[in-house]
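Risk register update: the risk of archive-format incompatibility is retired. Evidence:
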Amino acid sequence: FHSGEREEKCIIEDVPSDTLVIGNYKVQRWDIHKRDFLESAPGLGMFVTVTTPHADVLLSKLYGPQGTFSFTSEISGEHVICLESNSTRFVALAGSKLRIHLDIRVGEHFLDEAAIQAKDKVDEINLRLEHLIEQIHHVSKEQNYEREREEKFRKTSEETNSNILWWAIVQTLILISIGIWQMKSLRDFFISKKLV
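Archived output:
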């Protein structure tokens, strides 16, 4: 995505509890003379802030023009990941465009390929099995989290339907009572004027 030099961009990521989140990013600065983005942005870093669904700061750190950040979620919900350049230019002069490449991986545990190649085949199989078991645990956590969200959504829907039903009943009773009152008032009016 593109961003201004002093502009903060935020991404919302829905994450289950106790889940590892890894983010890789790279910043490129616009070069007016070449009319293209430079391959790297020396001297420019990114300030990464991660907040929990309860607005608690989970991560707040300054990184370089290219880097990796990671955090483990404490609670499930929508975590906000914000990136802002650490440009020291004045806001009026900081008009340069930035291109930010961002890759966020939720719940992935990467295999160390160098360690796998260095060990014999039995160790390699053990490592791959451990990796698969971690992936199974992650899928199980993800399913439990989706069940919790579905249950919360169902409760909200049932409460809304109940409120709508009661509101409809109250409206009907009000309309019926107003109709009866109008009929009684008209009948009394006609009787008092001796029209009936």
